[in-house]
Specification:
The chain is of the alpha/beta class and 257 residues long. The protein is built from eight helices and twelve strands. The mean pLDDT is 94.
């Protein structure tokens, strides 16, 4: 039985993760961390009996969890991971927005053998399949653009999924076709690895992405839609089960298949 701590347990993703962990026969939801637990009435109405609830990670980190799952915010995830890794707690991370320097530091912390760190910009199996398909197409149709659509409360743009998709595509194609249009024009999207990324933020959306490839006389569009946060749970549970057997820091759900 793997003991799990969920950081950001009262957020929309955090609550979904708690429910999924509690329903998994191989996992035990033992610790929940969220600033809102400072209100004892909130803790009392959490809905999961036998779970130790803490308002701060400094309190919850010593409660004995094997794995911490973090779905918090870009401004808090880095500090959370440093605390957990230094205490020997494996980490599964769905929060995006970490800088390259922070990723380098986390890789150094996770490489010492005490605890591993697994990060995925998207835990939906279908989203990973989109990225794998995009890599294949990019070898023959290198010109493309990405449109990513998320709910209006998502804090980062472009999304981590879109950035990761652009990086995977660029690694597969020969050369780097320059997107047409005036350089630096905001209407052309944020260019990452030579690929324009267009971010849409609207209520009613969950997480959606399409990659449009263009070639001589043709286009090819690959699209994935997460219609509910339940779509991420199989990937999250897979990572929680496998993180202890990894080596240091690993990025990308496809590495676990």
């Amino acid at each position: 039985m793997i003991s799990v701590m969920v950081i950001g347990a009262l957020g929309r993703m955090g609550r979904t993760v708690c429910d999924a962990v509690a329903a998994d026969s191989g996992l035990s939801l033992d610790v929940a961390v969220d600033p809102a637990f400072a209100d004892t009435d909130v803790a009392g109405g959490f809905g999961h009996s036998g779970v130790a609830c803490f308002a701060s990670l400094d309190e919850g980190v010593d409660a004995g969890a094997d794995v911490a799952v973090d779905f918090t915010t870009p401004d808090s995830v880095y500090g959370n991971l440093l605390v957990c890794l230094d205490r020997g707690i494996h980490c599964v991370v769905g929060t995006t927005g970490l800088s390259e320097q922070q990723m380098t530091e986390l890789a150094a912390r996770a490489g010492g053998g005490k605890a591993n760190c697994f990060l995925a910009p998207n835990f939906a199996i279908g989203a990973v399949m989109l990225m794998e398909a995009a890599k294949l197409v990019a070898r023959q149709m290198p010109s493309c653009e990405i449109i990513e659509l998320h709910h209006d409360r998502k804090l980062d743009a472009p999304s981590g999924t879109a950035l990761r998709t652009a990086e995977l595509i660029d690694a597969e194609r020969e050369g780097q076709p320059q997107p047409p249009g005036p350089a630096g024009d905001p209407a052309r999207g944020a260019v990452h690895r030579g690929i324009p990324i267009h971010s849409v933020r609207l209520p009613g959306l969950v997480a959606h992405q399409e990659v449009i490839f263009g070639g001589l006389g043709q286009t090819l569009t690959i699209r994935h839609d997460s219609l509910s946060r339940q779509s991420f749970m199989p990937g999250v549970l897979l990572a929680v089960h496998k993180v202890s057997g990894l080596d240091g820091m690993v990025v990308g759900l496809e590495k676990l298949f």
